[in-house]
Each structure stands twice: as structure tokens, then as C-alpha cells.
Amino acid sequence: MTKSHLRTTPSYLLADHPMPTGREEIWRFTPIAQIKGLLDDAAPWVPLTPVVDGWDATRAPIGPHTPAPVDRASAIGYNHAPEASVLRLSGEVDQPVTVTYEATGGSQVSQLVIQAAPLSRAVVVLRHIGVGDFIGNVAIDVGEGADLTLVSLQEWDNACHAGWHHGLVGRDAHYRHVAVSLGGPLVRLQSNVSYAGPGGQAELFGLHMTDAGQHHEHRLFVDQNMPKTTSRVDYRGALQGAGAHSVWIGDVLIRRDAYGIDSYEQNRNLLLTNGCIADSVPNLEIETGNIVGAGHSSATGHFDDEQLFYLCSRGIPEAQARRLVVQGFLGEIIRRIGVASIEQRLIRVVDDELERAEMASKENHG
After folding, report:
1. Is residue 275 within 8 Å of residue 244, measured between CB atoms?
2. Do 278 and 269 form a contact (C-beta atoms < 8 A)?
3. Which burial class, exposed, middle or buried, applies to 83 when counting CB atoms under 10 A from its CB (0-12, 13-18, 19+)?
4. What is the pLDDT of residue 140?
């Protein structure tokens, strides 16, 4: 594998993933003191088996076919989850398959393998709820000509979550990954994509609503290692409250032999109050000039006063106008999921989050 400055060398050995100091490139935005529990190999880790609704899942020992971990947290997850839950999807799956992880406190780990058979079509929803420390590794294999959408919902009550999702996209296959982080004091989700053949398409979308004291970190690595593959990345976040902190790292590597690549990534953040921090770092590493296109963009800012003025001039109260702007901003991501029931649920969840923030603001100023 070609070495790249955009990523560390994957390894199954924990010794190759030492305890970070916070000065390392892949950890420099992460609050080490807060995530320390997820990096402690000596903690009493307990495997957590998900509840699968809508499809049968089996258990199987993990092995060398499982992708090598990319950081210390994913290595701990690999070493302490001797078995994986395996979800094998085939044919046309009419209804979304829901996989629920409910953490019940303490230190819990899980290994999930999703295999979409060639020419299959399915939607999988991962729900994360509950409390505690949780490490979740997910390996996704999208077979030739298959179409798989994976929606990962982080709706924690009070949990710290380190996740690693690795998607392998087959020839002429389509893979859509949607990450939605709404709860939990700390979420650090690493989403990787590589290709098993030419013609593969990957879409990585995400949204987060980060409140006071929360840290939501989304890291992406798109390895364009096969010719004539495409990728589209679009992440959006809304932050409010003192100490709200989001991190988005978007890394795209276009390899020397991967001609005909079409890639674009963007990240946008909306700061709803003062005291928020949004770190956004897009990176491109291009080893060949024979590409269709590659680009990136990043923008972070407060409300557009002109938008608010326009809505308020039409008789809409300012608080409601702000909610409409945020709903429209995040709604563009939600509408790309392509499953009406999930889209409608997320719209309600975002609306509830905004309503709670509005009430909290009124109480603080009342």
C-alpha cells in the first residue's frame, strides 16, 4: 500500500497504536483527557451485541479478513471483540434494516460486518443510544453492482463513542454513508472508503448539532485507489452554546494508477451562538494528473443577517426565523438519504433539538 501523509499505517497490533499525547496529527483536535477512557486497553471491556430488526444476523469470529484498525480506539475494539455480528444482505431489501446499539454503562465494544451481495439493494440504519464508553468498528463490503445506504445515528444520552467505519466499494457499486451526530458528550467517528474495482461511487454525507460542552468529531479518508471511481463528500453542522466544539477532517488520496477520478468534498458549519468552535480541514493528495476533477471547500460562519432580515420582514419572529434557516441548512443533507421515513424522523429530531435550545436560551435570559 502506498504510504500517505494523510493517514497512519493500519495495524492489528495495539503496540503500533501507542497512547496519544495530543500532538499527533490524527489526535491534535481531540480532547485527550475526555477520550482517555476509550484508549485504555486495561479497562474492563465487554462485547456488546446489537439488536437487529428486519433481517437475520449471525455471529462469526473476526479474522484477517477484517480491515486492520487505523487508530488506538479501533485496535482496542478489534482486540476485545473476538466475534463480529455479520449482516448478509442479498436481493432487493424493501424495508430499512435497523441495527440498535444500546450501551448500558461501563466499557463496551462491538464489531459489525455488513456484506451487500452483488446487485443487491438495501438500507441499513445504525442506532446508538444509552450511556457509557463505546467503541464500534464496522466493516462494510459493497459487492459488484450493489447499492447500499448506511445511516449511522449517534443519539447518545450520556456516552463517549469512538467509531470506525470502513467501506469497500465493488466494481460499479454505489455506497452512501450518512453520519448524524446529535447526542453524547464526545463522538469521534472515522469513516473510510476504498474501492475493489473501477466504476464505484461513494457518497459520504453528514450532519451534526453540537451543543454546549459537546465534542463531535468526524474524520474521513477516501482512498481513490481504483480508476474511474467517484466520491462526493458533504458534511454540515450547527453549533450552539459555550464550549460546543466540532471537528471535520476530510482526506482524499488519488493514487498514481487511479486515472479518471472525479472527487469533491465540502464542509459547512453554522455558529448559532458565541463560544463555539468549528475546526474544518480538507486535504487532497493527488499522485496523477489524469483525473476528471478533484476539489474541496470549507466554510464556517454565523447567521446570514440578510436571510434573517428577509424572514423577519415577512412577519416571522426572529427565533422562528433562525429555526427555519437551520432547518433549511441541515435539511439539504437529510433529503439526500432517500428514505422518506428516516428523513421525516430526522427532521423531527432536528426540530426538537432547536426547540429545546430555544427554551434553554429563554430560561437563561429570563
Report:
1. yes
2. yes
3. middle
4. 97
Band of the pLDDT at 263, cuts 50, 70, 90? very high
Task: Retrieve residue 113's grid coordinates.
Answer: 460486518
pLDDT at 354 over 90: no
- Residue in 2, 78, 74 with CA at minimum distance from that of residue 38: 74
Q: How confident is the model at residue 243 (pLDDT cuts 50, 70, 90)?
A: very high
Nearest to 166, CA basis, from 51, 62, 36: 62
The angle that helices 305-313 and 318-334 make with each other, rounded to 10 degrees, is 120
Determine the average pLDDT of the residues in 316-338.
Answer: 82
d(CA 30, CA 186): 9
Q: Write down the pLDDT at residue 65.
A: 67
Query: Of 291, 142, 289, which is closest to residue 229 (Cα–Cα)?
Result: 291
Q: 353 vs 118, 347, 356, CA distance in Å?
A: 39, 10, 5
| Domains of the chain by residue range | 14-302, 304-366
Mean pLDDT check: name the lowest of 39-48, 176-185, 332-341.
332-341
Encode burial over 12-42: b for 16+ CB neighbours within 10 A, e otherwise: eeeeebeebeeeeebbebbeeeebeebbeee
The C-alpha cell that represents 152 in the structure block? 449511522
The answer, yes or no, to whether residue 3 has pLDDT greater than 60, is no
What lies within 8 Å, CB to CB, of 55 at 6+ separation is 87, 89, 93, 97
Give dist(CA 119, CA 142) in Å, integer.
Answer: 9
CA-closest candidate to residue 20, choices 81, 55, 72: 72
